[in-house]
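Write out structure tokens for L-lactate dehydrogenase.
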Amino acid sequence: MMSMKKEASSLSELGFDVNFGAGFFRQVPSSVCDNGEGTQRQRRPTKVSVIGAGDVGMAIAQTILTQGLADEIALVDADAGRVRGEMLDLQHAAAFLPRVRIVAGTDVLALTRGSDLAIVTLPGARPVGHRGVELLRKNVAVLREVVPAVAEGSPESLLLVVSNPVDVLAYAAWKLSGFPASRVIGSGTNLDSSRLRRLLADHLGVGAQDVHAYMVGEHGGSAVALWSSISVGGMPVLSYLQKTHASFDGEALEGIRRAVVGGACEVIGLKGYASWAIGYSVASLARSLLRDQRRVHPVSVLAKGFIPGDDHQVFLSLPARLGRGGVLGVAAELELTADEESTLRRSAETLWEHCQALGI
């Protein structure tokens, strides 16, 4: 079998003095004191770690990289060859991208140390049935190894879970990390909400950015569309659609909701996986968190006390204000129909059963 030669990724690996470049430019003082000596203040670099270098993880890393959201990106994966190859592939594009340091390897603790944001992506599509139970157990086993290492090396980090079943895994990550709930977030229905916005935007002939619409609850079959709160330019959308479309009844709304919930299935069926939309969705969350944007996203958060009639410590998607400190607040009161409220409670109860079964 032909062995592959490991190519150098830096001049230091080629034998050049790593400190020689320090003298290439002469430093100019940024301020002058009475004694004539200058002092230079440097901004603390922002570090993002992506754990899992599969299709989803790399879509996230690539989107964060091109949007200039980090000064350093650490890629971590159990497959040493793959993750090094992904690192080199991105490094080779350095002349076309913002200046970002990219490191990669298999050592979670060493590579993620000092992270501002750690993003956990694990393999597997949305779980269903018995296969879903097996996948859940497998992913929780990985979290038991990964999350404590991230917490040890980055005790002030924000933790963003993208893997499915995201609500249960966000709960597991919260318990395993020891972090306050405000610093553990699941990607939740942020992407589901984008799909809903796109469908409505196409129908109304506006940009998806101008549609305000949220999917909440479980990231799964029971996700709830907040129809009464959907608006464009301050105008309520539901009442307009019901006035202009004789067939726009409850059945039609349920059909749209199902199309949104199952939106990834066609993509996965056609190309084998979904990645780019997830990458952009997670990058939007990273921007709000790292740049302290305080934007509202429907993400999976500790929902205890926010769902009428339910007091379990479950993670469900609710409109949450995100900033540098993580979850800065959650929508206190949602306008829900009796059926929607009942759906949320049932989802919370089911998810709580799964969480209890983890033994964490």
